[in-house]
Design the sequence.
């Protein structure tokens, strides 16, 4: 198999993220919506997102270690940096309509978590497709 372009990965992420708008409840919903206390739900959502973000950083470093040239590493870093900007912008957009509602923070962190998990999957697929 041949290496996939980092920019193709970013494009795939964009498409998957847009499709996730209609996604139903996921692991976060199961683990954080078992209470009616909005503060507890929000705290849970923040923790779940932080955990996913740590997993993402580990996967990013794993991919980086597999790359041989400085150009590949630079392109990965560039794509990763732009993706993080995309993630923030997308979740700001996706939760904009409820920005003044009490559940805003929960939903924003839920979005950040879902998009982060999607990027982890994309990086995992990239590693699977490498001839290592």
Sequence:
């Amino acid at each position: 198999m041949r290496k996939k372009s980092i920019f193709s990965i970013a494009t795939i992420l964009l498409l998957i993220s847009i499709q996730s708008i209609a996604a139903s409840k996921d692991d976060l919903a199961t683990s954080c919506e078992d209470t009616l206390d909005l503060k507890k739900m929000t705290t849970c959502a923040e923790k779940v997102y932080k955990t996913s973000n740590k997993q993402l950083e580990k996967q990013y470093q794993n991919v980086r270690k597999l790359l041989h040239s400085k150009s590949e590493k630079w392109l990965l870093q560039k794509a990763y940096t732009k993706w993080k900007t995309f993630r923030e912008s997308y979740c700001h957009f996706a939760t904009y309509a409820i920005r003044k509602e009490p559940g805003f923070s929960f939903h924003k962190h839920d979005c950040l978590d879902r998009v982060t998990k999607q990027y982890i999957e994309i990086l995992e697929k990239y590693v699977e497709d490498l001839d290592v």
About this structure: Residues 6-19+37-129 form a domain with the Substrate Binding Domain Of Dnak; Chain:A; Domain 2 fold (CATH 1.20.1270). Confidence is low (pLDDT under 50) at residues 10-30. The radius of gyration is 16 Å. DSSP finds five helices and no strands in the chain.
